[in-house]
Amino acid sequence: MVMIANLYSFFRLKKQDLIKVLLLVFFLLVLTACQTTTVPLEFAPDANIVQQAIALQLNQRLTPLSEQLKTEKPQLDISNINVKKIDPVTIANLPSYHLTGTYNLKLILPRQKVKQINNKFDVYLQRQAEGKTWRLLSKDNKTSREESIWKSYLIIDN
């Protein structure tokens, strides 16, 4: 009889430990599920950074064209930036933002000015770890890997 009581108390103690372990695992799962790795919208780039990113993107396209045509690169006047969508994303473990929208552009050429309205833009911007600078990101389409390879370009704040 004493042996049965000892076994019962042994298993009873094990049930309590089992319940404690199960509760601990449950709370760990709940706390882990509550953690969020989303990028906060409060730190999204301002209009000046978006304008500079669009200008950098345009200059990357216009420079080779101007060199090929042996002409002077036009001056750019970007205005009326309208960000329609901001998607917070994480790229290379840093907070980044995918912005889409429209802007107006005035190309100032040596002999004429050309106006374009409602041009679409699609940029990825990434705040650097220290939080002082931004980079324009672009996917490298030349790679055949499934993983995206990103190129980054420093945006110099004027």
What does this structure look like?
By secondary structure, this protein is α+β, with helices and mostly antiparallel strands. It folds into two domains: 1-35; 41-155, no CATH class. Helix content is 35%, strand content 37%. It has two helices and five strands. It has helices spanning 2-34, 47-69, and strands spanning 75-91, 94-108, 113-127, 134-139, 150-155. Strands 1-2-3-4-5 form a five-stranded antiparallel beta sheet. The relative contact order is 0.14. The mean pLDDT is 81.
Number of strands: 5
Low-confidence parts: none
Classification by helices and strands: alpha+beta
User: Rough shape?
Assistant: elongated
Spatial sequence of strands, sheet with the most strands:
1-2-3-4-5
Write the layout of secondary structure elements.
Blueprint: H1 2-34, H2 47-69, E1 75-91, E2 94-108, E3 113-127, E4 134-139, E5 150-155
Antiparallel strand pairs: 1-2, 2-3, 3-4, 4-5
Q: Which terms summarize this structure?
A:
single chain; 158 residues; alpha+beta; 2 domains; five-stranded antiparallel sheet; 2 helices; 35% helix; 37% strand
Q: Concise description?
A:
This protein has helices at residues 2-34, 47-69, and strands at 75-91, 94-108, 113-127, 134-139, 150-155.
